[in-house]
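Archive entry. Fields below.
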Amino acid sequence: MNNSYLIKTEHIKKIYPMGLTTLIALDDINLTFKKGEFAGLVGPSGSGKTTLLNIIGALDSPSEGSAEVLGKKVETLSHRSAAHLRNWYIGFIFQTFNLLPVYTVFENVEFPLLLQNIPSPKRKKLVMEALEWVGLADRANSKPAHLSGGESQRVAIARAIVKKPELVLADEPTANLDAENSHHIMRTMVQLNEELKITFIFATHDEKVMRYLKRKISLNDGKVEKDEIFELEVKK
Amino acid sequence: MIKFLIKGLMRDRSRSLFPVLTVFAGVFLAVFLYSYINGVVSDMLKMTAHYQTGHLRIMTQAYAKEINQNPNDLALIGVNELLQKLNKKYPQMIWTPRIKFGGLLDIPDENRETKIQSPVIGIAVNLISKSSPEYKLLNIKSAIISGHIPNNPGEILIADEFAKKLNVGPGDTATLISSTMYGSMTMVNLKIAGTVYFGITAMDRSAIFTDISDIQSALDMQDAAGEILGFFPDDIYHDEQATLIASSFNEEFKNPEDKFSPQMGTLPKESGLSDYLATINSMSIVIIAIFIVTMSIVLWNAGLMGSLRRYGEIGVRLAIGENKGHIYRTLILESMIIGIFGSILGTLAGTGIAYLIQVYGLDMSFLFKKSSLMIPNELRARVTSGSFVIGFIPGIFSTVLGTSIAGIGIYKRQTSQLFKELEV
Ligand SMILES: Nc1ncnc2c1ncn2[C@@H]1O[C@H](COP(=O)(O)OP(=O)(O)OP(=O)(O)O)[C@@H](O)[C@H]1O
Ligand SMILES: [Mg+2]
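PREDICTED_STRUCTURE:
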């Protein structure tokens, strides 16, 4: 892997057919992200934030151009290799938490490790570590239905980081949370970023999230409008 | 991972309960129906074997050709020697000679003049000997309505209805008028020991059971018999063995040139039921096929609803890094767990209830009071190893098939598309 960047997109275009015409969701996106970044894609609804995040997460591939993620060209990956990449190196956090309702908090966080065939004692250790990170070790046996929104999202964070990924992609993680919970979650993620050196990329239009970002990429109509980097000191 | 899946199934009833119930119901019906058909067929076979053909039957070729007329002039001779050979060569079978005959039964008044006369069909079997297998085969003891089992030569059993028609009962005498093996007329005086109920109209109207030695002497058939029947000791027809015995016997004894040489045939052939049995067999196959198709459709739909409901879950699992093949395989695995579970329950219930009906059938015979000779009152439904196979394999097969079809949707959809369902 090239040390200078974790992700590099070159002339990415994403085109959706819309009846007779087409919709250009992403238009010539050229971005690089370094290891350890805490960056956000911001912009109005429909600007292409989710689309770009999904391409970076190997869930979707660009119509044109190239996206290199952790040394792999997303557009060339087979379905299997893409799954492998996600399983080992990328964590996802969603707006709607998306915990598996029939499983306990512990089992939800454990799931990615099951896919990695990690033996049970080590799984247990990693899951409890992750739950401690988000401050929910005491809720390990609860069911998602019994958690508040903030707690659910913290479980989702634990699930994303339990496998010690290089990269976490978070699509509107605070959209369903109140201010207090939003701040709590952002602080947790800043900590994970600083202490575990996990790279975070957000898609958001939440002002609260933006205050924590160290880099803000503004999208509009599928194009990069602005790309700003902030010194942490300035924010504090 | 399996543990993980089982946990999911157990906790999410909609994922397990409905499919398990569907499989249960289907398997239950199939197993029950199969056992029931099995029971009816085996009852019928038993009856046919006991009264007509045995599991194996030996006659002369000439007798066989005209069997409907009870042609005793064409009967087997040298029966004792043949029986000895049979017992030596095939000791695993029970061999018993029988003579079927026709004639007139004449009931005399106190002046020994004919009071009433009626045509009669007779079955002569080994009645007197206490070790005779016929008691069990013909279910005689429980079929007796009045009187007793013949103890002495010259004693007979008569159909109860026939006896009433003739206005006779135990202790009365009757004269059988028939013709000997050589064609001359003969008369023999018989004593009615008891009356029986056959359960077959034709026989109840005009049949008698006599001891075979009485008839042998009356019809000039010393050391002769119309037929020798062979039975498996467990009273179940085993086709493979029977076929082997028959062909080895025929090789040794049957001479196509000599129409008085004996030939042996098996139950399906002798009874003409082979076509019927084949039909029953193919019917079972049709039943099972319908069962598989219907259940697969139901379970396919259930699987479709289930996986629609689970698109969210599937999307998350894809995002977490599970690949589609793995998800598909876990769905199949889940369906197998459901199939096995439903099939076990369905098979247990199906065979259980079929078994209860066996027992209940027995109770019925007590209710009817008059037990019949022809209808073996043991089994109505019959549980065999086949009953287990019939439910189990289709039960699992249809679940897996249904899920496989439903799960194809996962492959058809784009990852990002499945994933989008999350955002709704
Ligand atoms: N599968 C699709 N088919 C057609 N058009 C699509 C598809 N997915 C996204 N789009 C379109 O692409 C554009 C960008 O969508 P995207 O979801 O990336 O926007 P976004 O910035 O995430 O918006 P939001 O803030 O509302 O989440 C939108 O106009 C959207 O309608
Ligand atoms: Mg979006």
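CURATOR_NOTE: The mean pLDDT of chain A is 93.
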